[in-house]
DNA sequence: CAATGGTTTTTGGTATACCAAATTTCGAAA
DNA sequence: TTTCGAAATTTGGTATACCAAAAACCATTG
């Protein structure tokens, strides 16, 4: 098992801070201060910031401090649209390419998700949610697709995290995951597409609601 | 007009060398030597290499020299599959979102492509080809989509470049571009999807042929 | 008091120095 | 002659030093 590199570790830490809200959207990320604060030099800190920029969590400005990203609703919706296309393609390919091991893995993740539902804190449950979707993408056996899909999930991380506040949403997600898993096991392309549409339509609605509520 | 940053300039230069074949696939990119050679320090050279790795033109190995990428045929085909999905989505969105200016721009690029057809060298004609596809993606008015699309075009750059050798292919491309433009101007989703399928199916066939021929 | 211009400070970009891991080289032993 | 291992070298990773551009501050002036 290879340890993550120093820049990746730093990126992970910053990412958690951003998702948890310790670093608020719009705040500048002064690389010197952050580096000192975390006991590393500017070089790996710079690389970490590039990683997060690639994930859309921070925005770079030439010759200025990078900012914690604060994308407008329209941007997020654009991402959801692309994510839907990517997930539908994943599903289609997975219906023909998924092995039994792939399906077993999915079933295991889904079981974990269900068992965590009542106990785990949001971030943990949320990461299991993510890994479920990534496992479907990987079942397509198309690495380029899985990688791009992962990148879009990451970009929507914060928005999705915000929508996971309410228990009711998480209940719906539970049912939708079951529907996805069932359709894939039956290798039923049409049902899988329908399930993805429902899932992402629901996500889009939730995000819209959160944005409206935030408009205070 | 903002000048590209130093790392971007370096990345551009390296990219040309890779596409032109000056840097052959599989060759190591020693950052110290390259930096010295180009009269810059290692820091921006490192960043440039990260950019190219993000584009899939070089592969990073922990604690080892990065290599010029040499993807197997299956990898490239995976990329074509995703590119098709992205272009179809672009087309669909562009049919509703494209403005008249967008269409004018496309017409202009297409005219440029036609006029260059007999005169320009491969790389120039090729870049016009790329810009045509990127302009369609931008006409979707979905920035995330256009950006991802651009990234996939870049990853397929070398493979596409290799297929552009034969005049006959380029003739076909000319006709297919006309079909794409026509369908989009008529805002005919179905026709546009058909045209994209034909275009990318053709591309996949060509790449396969080039790989078979290279198998010497 | 507000506006302006110049000076100081802050901060990202680049170059360089240093370190540790990986590779290569080369000689000793079987 | 071949093989194995230790020393030397190469090379990516990290820390630091330096520079130029941007921002903040402040005094001067209308």
UniProtKB/TrEMBL annotation, chains A, B:
<dbReference type="GO" id="GO:0003700">
    <property type="term" value="F:DNA-binding transcription factor activity"/>
</dbReference>
<dbReference type="GO" id="GO:0003677">
    <property type="term" value="F:DNA binding"/>
</dbReference>
<dbReference type="InterPro" id="IPR036390">
    <property type="entry name" value="WH_DNA-bd_sf"/>
</dbReference>
<keyword id="KW-0805">Transcription regulation</keyword>
<feature type="domain" description="HTH gntR-type">
    <location>
        <begin position="4"/>
        <end position="71"/>
    </location>
</feature>
<dbReference type="Pfam" id="PF07729">
    <property type="entry name" value="FCD"/>
</dbReference>
<keyword id="KW-0804">Transcription</keyword>
<dbReference type="InterPro" id="IPR000524">
    <property type="entry name" value="Tscrpt_reg_HTH_GntR"/>
</dbReference>
<dbReference type="InterPro" id="IPR011711">
    <property type="entry name" value="GntR_C"/>
</dbReference>
<dbReference type="InterPro" id="IPR036388">
    <property type="entry name" value="WH-like_DNA-bd_sf"/>
</dbReference>
<dbReference type="Pfam" id="PF00392">
    <property type="entry name" value="GntR"/>
</dbReference>
<protein>
    <submittedName>
        <fullName>Transcriptional regulator, GntR family</fullName>
    </submittedName>
</protein>
<dbReference type="InterPro" id="IPR008920">
    <property type="entry name" value="TF_FadR/GntR_C"/>
</dbReference>
<keyword id="KW-0238">DNA-binding</keyword>
């Amino acid at each position: 098992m290879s340890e993550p590199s120093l820049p990746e570790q730093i990126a992970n830490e910053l990412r958690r801070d951003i998702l948890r809200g310790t670093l608020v959207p719009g705040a500048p990320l002064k690389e010197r201060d952050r580096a000192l604060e975390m006991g590393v030099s500017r070089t790996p800190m710079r690389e970490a910031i590039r990683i997060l920029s690639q994930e859309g969590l921070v925005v770079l400005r030439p010759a200025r401090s990078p900012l914690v990203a604060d994308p407008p609703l329209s941007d997020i919706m654009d991402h959801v649209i692309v994510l839907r296309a990517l997930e539908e393609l994943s599903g289609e390919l997975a219906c023909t390419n998924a092995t039994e091991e792939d399906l077993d893995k999915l079933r295991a993740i889904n079981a974990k998700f269900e068992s965590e539902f009542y106990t785990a804190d949001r971030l943990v449950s949320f990461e299991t949610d993510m890994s479920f979707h990534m496992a479907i993408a990987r079942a397509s056996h198309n690495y380029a697709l899985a990688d791009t899909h992962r990148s879009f999930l990451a970009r929507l991380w914060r928005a999705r995290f915000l929508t996971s506040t309410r228990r009711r949403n998480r209940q719906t997600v539970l049912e939708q995951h079951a529907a996805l898993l069932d359709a894939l096991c039956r290798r039923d392309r049409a049902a899988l597409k329908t399930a993805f549409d429902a899932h992402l339509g629901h996500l889009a609605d939730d995000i819209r609601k959160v944005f409206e509520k935030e408009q205070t």
